[in-house]
UniProtKB/TrEMBL annotation:
PANTHER family: DEHYDROGENASE PKFF-RELATED, GLUCOSE-METHANOL-CHOLINE GMC OXIDOREDUCTASE. GO terms for molecular function: flavin adenine dinucleotide binding; oxidoreductase activity. SUPFAM superfamilies: FAD-linked reductases, C-terminal domain. GO terms for biological process: secondary metabolite biosynthetic process. Belongs to the GMC oxidoreductase family. This is Uncharacterized protein. It comes from Imshaugia aleurites.
Length: 155
């Protein structure tokens, strides 16, 4: 929006020239939450990228950490044993998801996906998230300065 594309009312509020009035810009956000569990491990992971040698190898497309991204990804429907503990409202919401669409995703990552561990070492992450979030939120600016973080409403 700071570049001039978005709802004209928002852009005018921050004295941004309107290049394109797009009222729906920033609406309909559906960002699946991911809960990450980070473990200390005894193998080389992307945690090593803070080491200049490993970082240089990765940037030259060589070495074990060329692709430090997600290593495994899986998904499934919420198991029946877990559904038994859900409210009627939650079950009603889940019924809106197509029968052939997963509801849960599993992610592994050879490093600290949470980016919260500051202690030196090697880490691996196991994450669980919603594959089909039903809430819709929005994103908007709070000023004309790109240094100011946007206002995010996940709903």
């Amino acid at each position: 929006m700071v570049s001039g594309t978005g709802p004209k009312e928002t852009l005018k509020k921050y004295n941004i020239p309107v290049l394109s009035d797009l009222p729906g810009e920033g609406q309909g956000l559906h960002d699946p939450p991911l809960y990450a569990l980070v473990y200390s491990v005894s193998v080389t992971t992307s945690s090593s990228l803070i080491n200049a040698t490993y970082a240089a190898q990765a940037s030259n497309q060589a070495g074990p950490l060329t692709d430090p991204g997600t290593n495994e990804l899986g998904s499934e429907k919420l198991p029946a044993s877990s559904r038994a503990n859900l409210s009627a409202n939650a079950l009603s919401l889940l019924s809106q998801i197509p029968s052939d669409w997963p509801e849960i995703e599993y992610v592994t990552f050879a490093g600290d996906l949470s980016r919260t561990i500051t202690a030196p070492g090697q880490y691996a992450t196991f994450g669980v998230g919603l594959a089909a979030p039903l809430s819709r939120g929005n994103v908007t600016i709070i000023s004309a300065d790109t240094v100011d973080r946007p206002l995010i409403g996940l709903n």
